[in-house]
Amino acid sequence: MNKLIGLTRNFSSSTSLNAIKTVTIVGGGLMGSGIAQVAAQAGQNVTIIDINSDLLGKAQKSIQTNLTRVGKKLYKGDEAKINSFVQESFERIKVSTKLEDGADVDLIVEAIVEKLDVKQELFNKLDQISPAHTIFATNTSCISVNAIGSGIKRKDKYGGLHFFNPVPVMRLLEVIKCDSTSEETYQAMMEWGKSVGKTCITCKDTPGFVVNRLLGPYSAEAIRMLERGDASAEDIDIAMKLGAGYPMGPLELADFTGLDTKTFVLSNMFEKTGNPVFKPIPLLDKLVSEGKFGRKSGEGFYKYDK
Ligand SMILES: CCCCCCCCCCCCC[C@H](O)CC(=O)SCCNC(=O)CCNC(=O)[C@H](O)C(C)(C)COP(=O)(O)OP(=O)(O)OC[C@H]1O[C@@H](n2cnc3c(N)ncnc32)[C@H](O)[C@@H]1OP(=O)(O)O
Ligand SMILES: NC(=O)c1ccc[n+]([C@@H]2O[C@H](COP(=O)([O-])OP(=O)(O)OC[C@H]3O[C@@H](n4cnc5c(N)ncnc54)[C@H](O)[C@@H]3O)[C@@H](O)[C@H]2O)c1
């Protein structure tokens, strides 16, 4: 089944007068590179900012690969169309390590490390250098959107845009409207989400929003099951794929989304909800302390070819 539902040959872009046409993604990692890809595919000009130039190079390579996957699906067998789709989309993406190179745009989406203080510092800096019309959004997995933006002046032009991994395939976008988000900004975020091929839902600024609040306990319990030795990682994953119809088992999904990010999310969910299901998991902490972050580091619960 074509999992890239929502992608059409005539890429939609918002038709409203204030359509978002220029986007900066801060953080060119797993998520930022995917968000940049879907915006570029939709005909928007994109800048990816990252503090790590090596990771910017990695992002460009993975975007090129994934644009080709999308192109092959859209233009089956027509090499000329596939190549022009990939080239035209890729040429819309610029990369830089300088924040000021991405400040003057219609929308900035933050997709940096899942740490409150680092996100706050970034938005406070951007608030100083971006023009008044620029909308800010965070792709946080579960940190309070209000807390992340607590230091910025443009609280009316700020909210949450939570994408799902891998961004070019997962059709959902959680749009989080803070009390301070203006209706105009909320509508612009919803329209932009649709313009990049997503089905948007709206939820309140609560820990884990919708998906992660439900996915969290499941994911945490799967790791504890492995830690107790109740079953092997392989069998836990096979069980949930064949027994519950999941496309990926919980442990391969954890490796896919990043064990480092999971520990940040877990501690935040425990702090904010007090739910014991989110208590620290020694096995997870051990893997992360050994630099085993999952696919992105070459090893997590499983080993991967680099
Ligand atoms: C201990 C934890 C406690 C607390 C945790 C709290 C919650 C958890 C927090 C974790 C971290 C953050 C989570 C985040 O905030 C929210 C999320 O992102 S949750 C994760 C959501 N994603 C999923 O669940 C993914 C499930 N997996 C799948 O859908 C599929 O396995 C797959 C990834 C799409 C891969 O599909 P497969 O069939 O297995 O493999 P293929 O390689 O054939 O791909 C299928 C199809 O898709 C195309 N494709 C795949 N990847 C890309 C890409 N990156 N770009 C473009 N296209 C892609 C591929 O070409 C195939 O196309 P086809 O040929 O089939 O047409
Ligand atoms: N991994 C997932 O499945 C997933 C899904 C949805 C949302 N998220 C959220 O998206 C965000 C990014 O997650 P990820 O998995 O892409 O992480 P990642 O580690 O793959 O990428 C983070 C990137 O941010 C860069 N970075 C860190 N601090 C920076 C700064 N101050 N300025 C600029 N760049 C900086 C890093 O160099 C890195 O390239 C997190 O908030 C995470 O919770 C993750």
TrEMBL record:
Pathway(s): Lipid metabolism; fatty acid beta-oxidation
Domain 3-hydroxyacyl-CoA dehydrogenase C-terminal, first and last residues per copy: 208-304
Transmembrane stretches, start-end: none
Ranges for domain 3-hydroxyacyl-CoA dehydrogenase NAD binding: 22-206
Reaction equations catalysed: a (3S)-3-hydroxyacyl-CoA + NAD(+) = a 3-oxoacyl-CoA + NADH + H(+)
Binding annotation for NAD(+): G27, G28, G29, L30, M31, G32, D50, E114, K119, S141, N165, K296
GO BP terms: fatty acid beta-oxidation
Residues at the site labelled Important for catalytic activity: H162
Compartments (UniProt record): Mitochondrion matrix
EC code: 1.1.1.35
Cellular component, GO annotation: mitochondrial matrix
Pfam families given in the database record: 3HCDH, 3HCDH_N
Classification via PANTHER family: HYDROXYACYL-COENZYME A DEHYDROGENASE, MITOCHONDRIAL, PTHR43561
Protein's UniProt name: 3-hydroxyacyl-CoA dehydrogenase
Organism expressing this protein natively: Helicoverpa armigera (Cotton bollworm)
Gene: HaOG208751
